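Extended Data, record histidine kinase
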Amino acid sequence: MHSELQQDRAVKVRNTYQQGEGRKLRWVFVLLTGFWTILAIVLAELNYRHAYSTSLEVAQASARDTFARDSVYRRWAAAQGGLYVPVTPKTPPNPYLSHLPNRDISASCGQELTLVNPAYMTRQVQEMGREEYGLRGRITSLKPLRSENAPDEWETKALSALQKGETEASSIETLDDELYFRFMRPLVTEEGCLKCHAEQGFMLGDIQGGISVSVPWEPFRNSLRTLQRTDLFTYGAIWFFGFLGLLIAGQRINLHLSERRQAEESLKASLKEKEMLLREVHHRVKNNLAVISALLNMQRQTVEDPVGSTALKDLDGRIKAIALVHERLYSKGSLAEIDFQDYLDTLLRELSASLGIQSDIRCVARAQDILLGIDVAVPCGMIVNELVTNAFKYAFPGNNPRAGAQHKEISVSLHEDDKGYMLVVADNGVGMPGEIDLQSTRSYGLRIARMIAAHQLRGAIDLDRSNGTRFVITFDSSTKEA
């Protein structure tokens, strides 16, 4: 009797314990499911924000390019004192130049010509750009000569900000019931501008107005909507399979607990087996979290630490240099070799853009008719990435070339002869300090370039400081077959 009571008590204790463990497992399942759901939503949101930020950067780059184009040919026309063109219905004599005695002239052939000032020319070109490409641009001012150039509400605020010292203004605004990325930079009074604007009181260096550029936002919004739908499917699938894994794991645990209850094993054996199962669950969760950690690192775009931000940016450049090789392999239809001239042109352009280089540094690539396999193109691209990045950062302090140089230039060339290849990365900057030893430098970029040249290309790298900085990497033609 006493034995039966002990057995009944043991059974009740086991049942109570198992029920308690069952409730705990259900709570763990609920918590893990909630954590997994929140994580999927956060990752999708981070991906969307990154895409949105990228769209803004692309729109801003397009607006800056448009401004730069308009500004350059406007300055050129101002330097020439304006241009004479035939009088047409679209280009009648400018009434705002009526005070000039030579506004209208006759050509030797008898054709009537009229003077077109830079602002008139810019306005006509901007109208053509709007008709053909959808880009809206115009010159505006708080003190316009032409009433049609009076600013709207957004332009008035932007001009006021420019007058206070801002270098540019931009935002997404509604214009004629459509969304546009609006951008403005100032127009500074130069010598050629005084011909038309001196009577307004403008002096050299004054901000007389700005060029307003409006890029249609609808294509970007459509792309973001497509991304949202893709993210919904992708992260929804990831969430579903993760949830399914948790569900299967939970079912397996519950099944095993049922089998243990039916077998009425001892509490110690049951606890031991439970511990083994929990270790299995923790092992699987740990693996899932490792995958999640990798996804989080991929989503990480910004950090507060400047050193860390620079390191991530440099790493991004190296990854892009490798990715560009694959892009060229597939985009050009050949899976064996890439046109290295085309690769260098694109790489130099993307490096300049990613580093925010807005000076007049000229980048020259010389690798005509050079075809490289991926085993050679990748290390060459990595070396070019490191050395050109260093040149952009350090070769031209104060944005000036070395003494005697007519302009700032960074050149990359690859030549092939009977002896092998010679890759040259050079600049006409201030030159690398003499105390820097290429073989023992602490510069991470130079160490990478040296190691890649030695170990991947099985070649040598030399440094010439006689005229700026010139790196010469030589390697055998057999590397190409290897």
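Summary. Residues 1-7, 277-297 have pLDDT under 50 and may be disordered.
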